[in-house]
Amino acid sequence: MSQGVVKCWLEINKTNVPAEEEVRIWEITPKPPIDMEIRICVLNCKNIWMDAEGTCDTYFRGFFDTNEEIQETDTHFRCTDGKPDFEYRLVYKVKFPKKLTKFTLQGYDRDFFKSNEMFGEGTFELGDIMEDVALIKNPLSMNKKYYTDVLKKKYPQMKLEFDSEDPNKFWIQLWAKNKKGKLEKRGMVAMKVDIYPSD
């Protein structure tokens, strides 16, 4: 039995509506983009990967998309205990709705005589909290309650560990493939994220 294409037409006719009845008009114009400022603080680290000399000149690069703005922290030179400390803020001016809302943080070992070596990366999703900021027109922080109530079930692969003393501080795991092609842990980074609607 051969299959073909069926063409059809849809005809919309106006019916007589009593004058006393209100006709609902649906607004379908897209909402204008909302300007936001995303403040991502890279705080401190633990169990960071070390090179063959037992040190790491650690810095981090953060971005939503490699074709957009990429920002870097300063460098913690000659770290020997796997706990480089930063307290460094990355600030991004974005428009929402935004196509890519997953944030990537990459850890690097700075080298002055050859190319810098990326030793691991971690990601987390910010689309939901950005949407909520756009709705309420007020700042929001990535905190333990928001993560537990909104994000944990929706993004099971996004595992954030929140600080026991500060509910706004969370840890992300850095990962990288080893020589056998298997993922291994390369340390953890403590962070804070605050999102503000621009005036």
Intertermini distance: 63 Å
Could you state the CATH homologous superfamily? C2 domain
Order of helices and strands: EEEEEEEHEHEEE
Gyration radius (Cα, Å) is 24 Å
Question: Count of DSSP E strands?
Answer: 11
| Overall outline | elongated
Q: Let me know the largest β-sheet.
A: 6 strands, antiparallel
* CATH topology tier name: Immunoglobulin-like
**How many structurally independent domains?**
1
How would you state the average pLDDT, rounded? Answer: 89
Please report the number of helical segments: 2
CATH class type: Mainly Beta
Q: Could you estimate the helical fraction of the residues in percent?
A: 10-25%
The structural class is mainly beta
The proportion of residues in beta strands is 35-45%
Unreliable spans: none
CATH-derived architecture: Sandwich
Concise account of the structure shown:
The chain is mostly beta strands.
Provide structural commentary:
With 199 residues, this protein is mostly beta strands. It has a single domain, classed as C2 domain (Immunoglobulin-like, Sandwich), CATH 2.60.40. It has two helices and eleven strands. Strands 1, 5, 8, 9, 10 and 11 form a six-stranded antiparallel β-sheet that branches. Strands 2, 3, 4, 6 and 7 form a five-stranded antiparallel β-sheet that branches.
Task: Summarize the helices and strands and which ones pair or pack.
Blueprint: E1 34-46, E2 56-63, E3 71-72, E4 76-79, E5 85-96, E6 102-109, E7 117-125, H1 127-136, E8 140-141, H2 144-154, E9 161-162, E10 170-177, E11 183-197
Antiparallel strand pairs: 1-5, 1-11, 2-3, 2-4, 2-6, 6-7, 8-11, 9-10, 10-11
